[in-house]
UniProtKB/TrEMBL annotation:
The lineage of its organism: Eukaryota, Discoba, Euglenozoa, Kinetoplastea, Metakinetoplastina. InterPro entries: WD40/YVTN_repeat-like_dom_sf, WD40_repeat_CS, WD40_repeat_dom_sf, WD40_rpt, WD_repeat_RBAP46/RBAP48/MSI1. Keywords: Repeat, Ribonucleoprotein, Ribosomal protein, WD repeat. WD repeats lie at residues 287-307. GO terms for cellular component: ribosome. This is Uncharacterized protein. The keyword Repeat applies.
Amino acid sequence: MVAENATLATPGNVFTSASVSLCPSEEALAVLLSPFSGTCSVGLLPLDAEAPGLESAAAMRWLDMPNEIRATCVEWTDELLFVGCNRGRVFISDTPKSAASEGGGGPFVPCGALFCSQEERPVSEIVISHSAHAMNTAVRSVRVNRGVNESLVLGLRGRKAYVWDLEGSPSPVTEWAPHEESTDTAPVMFGRWAPGSASVVLTGTYEGNVMLVDTRANNTNNGLTFAVRKGYACSSGDFNPLLPSIFAAASCDGTFSLFDVRYTSHAILSVPSLQGDISTLKWMNLNSDLLVTGGTDGTVALWNIRSPPTFCVGRAQYSYSVADLVTTETFLDQRALSISIGGELTSTGLHMDAMMKLAPYPMYGRHASPDSASTDAELAEMEERETAACGFLYTRQLRDAFTLLAQCAEDRLSHGDTEIALKVVGMMDVSRVPPLDYSSLIQSKVENSDSPLTVSDVRQAFELLLERTSTHLTTTIALTRIRGLEKPDSLDLRKLEALRLNIMLSQVLATQDPDKVAIGVEKALELLATHPESFELIDGDIVCGIVSLLLKKNFEAGERFVKFLLSKLSTPDLLTMAMPLLKRILCTAQEPLITADNSRYSRRFSERFFRDLPAAQDAVLTQLTITRLGIENYKEVTATVNAYQARCIEKDLPGIHRWLGVKPILLFLHCLAAESNYVSFFWSSVQCIQAYEQFPAVRQIENVLFAVVNRINTAAGKIADQLNRLADTERLTIPILRQIDNALKTAHGFLVVLVRVQLECENVAIDSDLGHLPPLMETILDVLNNASEDVLEMWGSVVDLLIDAPQPDMVKKYCLSSIRDFSFSMEDLMEVSAKGEDDEQLNSILDVCDDFLDAMTQQ
């Protein structure tokens, strides 16, 4: 225990009232001492050190009040000092927190006052029953509504509670007797604003009644009454700052009880303090499981709600009955500052080492994974480090805590204990305490008081909440306000965020379920968007495994994941550190790779692909786009690749011929063939085969090329066979002439396409300034030329048959139009041919057409 005390009065002096109040910034402490006779004084103590010590108590600045004023309580904001006094008055002094550092004492100078009533009857005129409680006109308690509306002030006098608005008149805007079932004169012992509420107040009476009241409700049923120990004065109460639904109330029989405002019929927990009457009670502000009580026997006790059966984890004994206490929230070393009726100012708490031992260890009861490679000794060592990390986190020693958490999570992950590793990483999360709407809660409970939950259900829910807030960084204030708090190392933060992502992705990847993986990826994307600095520590194997799985089974989700990763990893801040991961993702997105073998040439080829990283990303995104479109959208595929190639030409880049992915290249070639864009198909195929001739995967490209060539050659053979059969016809009947005309149309269409392809392929070579055609292109053109020659030979035989036919009128009727259109098409191809009108093949075809047309004209 840490127990310090400073005596503010001469030994033997006893005060009728003693009260303390911290200003909201906790840079100063106000102490009120009210003797039986003489002058009441308010002392101001600066608290400008990292620990709330009492070293400067001897130099405390005292403000003396007029002799006729008997003060009972004090409350301090950063600018105003409130003192509750006799005759139902609250005096206000313009006393900023900086006044504590000013030298010397002086008089207490009020700048205003609040009154419980406009006309206060003299004490001599007040008549009370012989069985009533002693009459007291003093304002027992003053509470400013901090954090919500500091112009609202709550005060207690007798059996009534009052609320003043500093922006209005000095009269109360609301006054009420919260405990109607109490006797007329049973005083209200304490009053507290509900956290974050502008109207709800918690009160307790001398007869032991505790009530939560909404002062702004328009109906009489505006409060909740809790099942407390009736007959024992309820001396103090306080809301848990980290669990706003929980409050503690102390009874004069030495017992304090915990209640959940959502369940009024029973207490969650009742603890006998064994220290006589409890005069005051407060929760510690940074730990949801720590409570401090001050007793009439002079003890200040510290209680841990998670430590049954005694719950007491520290006790300090002082000389006089404790009158009032406050707990700090902006000091790393938490303290309870109390004042006794003997003028003894005390500071009580636990040493950091002792506090660390109170930390819960959330991994207890969790066994290592069956696949874990940990030995018993390694498990014991890891649990010891995790326990230490929990202790550091519990005491807000964040730098040490996060360093250990990162090490522990890495150890667990390396041993295959992913579930525990994720829990360790999750301990770094900062949880902001959610607000509780007390007004709505009161209204709903009044309308429907029945609860289906049992006492054990409520206690179990409370224990879960308590464990959550005790094992995680839960706070109601900005951590930067805590003095002495060291910020976590940024590298440890990045490690933990990256570990969380790696564990999350590892778990979803292990399911091999694309739907679960897609959901996990969405969560990962949110996490990465929040913590982009974690990219550099992402496990490349896990990320690439997910990319590969999604692109195979849920392509659209995989494409989104890849695009997001590329957009984030390519930022200037991360590019250098994330370059290895970026390259791996780009490779994975193109799998299966043409450079699948690990030869020196393959490595060099891949290195050239990554020399221009923006170009590499453009290439991969183009491949993903056309893969998503698929062969059924062949026109969009070819348009996308053509646009990509145009961008590459502008930048003098090799384009598609440097891609690493096999499937996108094959898809593009298939789409060209489906679109009958044979010129682009042949040249693209030839160029790809030349570019990838060193890799075994080139065989797949060759297979696509030769399949198309064979298909053309086969089609030419079928057309030639049909024409050959018709050329042997001896008698040209009308049905035969119709067959000949249909066959000629088929042959003409085939020849126009085939001849145009040959001519345009030759033109590409000429336009590209190629000295000669690539050998493979020469072979293709030879095959196409042979195919066209075979068809032309049979076509010529059929035309000769028609010229020599004895029925020229019938021939003219059925075949003239087809051959004349074919002649026009061949003339158009003269403009395509690089030889122009000197093209021998075209002239030969036109000569045959002219012979036929002349013969028909002569007839």
